[in-house]
Design goal:
Elements (H helix, E strand, L loop, with lengths): L16 H8 L4 E3 L5 E3 L15 E5 L12 E5 L11 E4 L19 E5 L8 E6 L12 E5 L9 E4 L13 E5 L8 E5 L4 E6 L10 E6 L13 E5 L8 E6 L2 E6 L6 E5 L7 E5 L8 E6 L13 E8 L2 E10 L19 E5 L8 E6 L12 E6 L6 E8 L16 E8 L8 E6 L2 H4 L2 E8 L2 E11 L17 E2 L3
Antiparallel strand pairs: 1-2, 3-4, 3-30, 4-5, 6-7, 7-8, 8-9, 10-11, 11-12, 12-13, 14-15, 15-16, 16-17, 18-19, 19-20, 20-21, 22-23, 23-24, 24-25, 26-27, 27-28, 28-29
Pfam families: FG-GAP, FG-GAP_3
Keywords: Glycoprotein, Hydrolase, Repeat, Signal
Protein name: FG-GAP repeat protein
Length: about 475
């Protein structure tokens, strides 16, 4: 059982469709230990190049280098048998080749994103550490690229803040996509300022980005939670260039990608969204945007406990006139709409049943089940030719048959959600983080995809200690963030 903690803002990030296509292009040869050659997979989240998608999870409260809350990230490798605790690699700023030092309360791993940034066929992991002090700049924030290799993540490169005096918490939001349309993966970085920075591909391990662009979003700057609290990428108008979504306290703004930098296309939904994710749910060739409104304004009567809105893409980009709203009041969605459930606080997209249509995972980490407050729950909505639907919705918590564990107060099951095919069976598996599990040690669950949807049969679960993160009198909160969720 865990004690109650303050709500943490969710900032899921998404690899855009065109960046995925670029990552998959080519059959790059890499050298393995012993001189053997093999083709790296090119998958944006395959950090060791073995052809299986991997799972990257943050433990920003972990002890590293003897420093409390210095933070760490864990990669659990995919395989023919899926994800397990045994196949993992844990990285911190105390790891060899990683820039910087583990320092108290840095919270390395607060933000995560992934993509093949240097086009070597290996996925790379981008880590945001927005509370890191940079010299005398308190909470200036930092961004680190951890490079993929045949042995997994190895070494890193710092992406320097171009405007340290203009904002704080550089790296509080991240997204990878081809925002300039040159076929190379770019990196978008947000802070507490209005300025959002696009670091251009291709990246190198020695020099970082090939260049950078700045655009000032129509958002409020100032102390957190001001600025670009969330970023996401997707090709909503199907022009071959990813667009960037900026989530903020002032609203969610879609900027159309271009070689000269993003330009405003539209505003989508209210501010203070807990999560963003992107996928082409109806397979019409245009990515769709999902906004999770987990904390509802007192003047908003859409739903008491949170809701998600899908804005469908079209030839002109995100179409705010074509949208659908889902909550626990939606027919077919299990549960009841209650105050402060935080429904929509975490989002992820992937095809769980192999029918070719992406599905949507929704987390509500404050959901109360029985007498257990803030135990948390997760739902999976189906995609189809007409988009997302409330028909056939599945829901999971720790009292669901086959799911390891038991519902306890403040577990926060659904803190983070992730959908990816980790065993190459053509169906996305559902990963769930619960950072509050076991007094804020945190834990991760992985449930398999199947032709009938997500199944708890064969589900696995593992906590922080299983991946080499000790409590040591601190709160690791393993499972608070996942890359690509």
């Amino acid at each position: 059982m865990s004690r109650s903690r303050h709500k943490r803002s969710r900032r899921p990030v998404v690899l855009g469709a065109t960046a995925v296509a670029a990552a998959l292009a080519g059959g790059l040869l890499v050298t393995l230990p012993g001189g053997a050659s093999a083709a790296a997979s090119g998958l944006a989240d395959d950090f060791n190049g073995d052809g299986y998608r991997d799972l990257a999870t943050g433990a920003p409260g972990a002890v590293a280098g003897g420093k409390a809350k210095a933070g760490a990230v864990v990669v659990n490798y995919g395989s023919a048998s899926g994800i397990s605790a045994a196949r993992h690699k844990t990285t911190s700023q105390s790891s060899s080749g990683v820039p910087g030092d583990s320092e108290t309360s840095d919270r390395f791993g607060t933000e995560l994103a992934h993509g093949d940034l240097n086009r070597d066929g290996y996925g790379d992991l981008v880590v945001g550490t927005p509370l890191e002090d940079v010299g005398s700049d308190v909470d200036g924030g930092s961004v680190t690229i951890l490079w993929g290799s045949s042995s997994g993540l190895s070494g890193g490169t710092t992406i320097s803040d171009p405007n340290p005096s203009g904002h704080d918490r550089f790296g509080q939001s991240l997204a990878v996509g081809d925002f300039t349309g040159d076929g190379k993966a770019d990196l978008a970085v947000g802070s507490t300022g209005k300025d959002v920075w696009i670091f251009k591909g291709g990246f190198t391990k020695s020099g970082g980005a090939a260049g950078k662009l700045r655009f000032d979003a129509q958002i409020e700057s100032g102390s957190y939670p001001r600025g670009a609290v969330q970023l996401a990428a997707g090709d909503f108008d199907n022009d071959g260039t990813d667009d960037v979504v900026v989530g903020s306290s002032a609203g969610n703004f879609v900027y159309r990608g271009a070689s000269t930098g993003p330009t405003l296309q539209t505003e989508a939904g209210p501010g203070y969204a807990g999560a963003l994710t992107v996928a082409d749910f109806d397979r019409d060739g245009h990515d769709d945007l999902v906004v999770g409104t987990d904390f509802v304004d007192v003047l908003d009567d859409t739903a008491k406990g949170g809701y998600v809105t899908v804005f469908y893409g079209g030839t002109a980009g995100v179409d705010t006139t074509r949208s659908a709203v889902f909550s626990q009041d939606t027919p077919g969605v299990p549960g009841a709409d209650e105050d402060h459930d935080s429904f929509g606080g975490a989002l992820a997209a992937g095809d769980v049943n192999g029918d070719g249509y992406p599905d949507l995972a929704i987390g509500a980490n404050f959901e109360t089940i029985g007498s257990a407050a803030q135990t948390g729950s997760v739902w999976v909505l189906r995609g189809g030719a007409s988009g997302l639907t409330g028909t056939g919705v599945q829901s999971f918590n720790q009292d669901t048959s086959g799911v390891p564990g038991a519902n306890e107060s403040s577990d926060l099951f659904g803190d983070a959600v992730h959908l990816a095919d980790h065993n190459k069976d053509g169906r996305a598996d559902l990963s769930v983080g619960a950072a509050g599990e076991n007094s804020d040690d945190g834990a991760v669950w992985v449930l398999r995809g199947s032709t009938g949807g997500v199944t708890a049969t064969g589900a696995v679960s593992f906590g922080a200690a299983s991946v080499g993160i000790g409590k040591a009198g601190d709160d690791p909160v393993f499972g608070e963030t996942m890359s690509g969720s």
